Amino acid sequence: MKETLESKIRSVAVNIRRIRESKKYTQDYMAVKLAISQNAYSKIELGYTKITVERLFQIAQILDVDPVDLISLNDDTLLHVVNEI
Questions:
Q1: Which residues does the UniProt record annotate as the domain HTH cro/C1-type (predicted)?
Q2: 47: left (phi > 0), else alpha (psi -120 to 50), else beta?
Q3: Which of 39, 48, 65, 84 has the most Cβ atoms closer than 10 angstroms to its Cβ?
């Protein structure tokens, strides 16, 4: 079954949240680094806000991961990346 665009966007948001939590970063911390409000950042993690490629790269840089990891991780590879952190 093919993933819908909406489910892919949600998957990216979940990957961002899980990696952020594994690093023990708060949403406030991420928001400050991105120069946005905590509420705006929360919407990214909830998948309400569609992020640009630029924003994806910014988030990846803050989390110190490859941007591709944020897009392509599934549960198995996400656990591996989180364990490396």
A1: 16-70
A2: left
A3: 65
pLDDT of residue 13: 94
Taking 90 as the threshold, does the pLDDT of residue 8 lie above it?
no
Residue type, 72: S
Tokens representing residue 47 in the block: 């998948």
Mean pLDDT of 17-26: 96
Q: What is the mean pLDDT of the chain?
A: 88
Give how many domains the chain has, as a whole number: 1
Name the H helices within the chain: 5-22, 27-34, 38-45, 53-63, 67-72, 75-84
Q: Is residue 76 part of a domain?
A: yes
Q: What is the CATH number of the domain that holds 15?
A: 1.10.260.40
* Predicted local confidence at residue 16, as pLDDT: 96
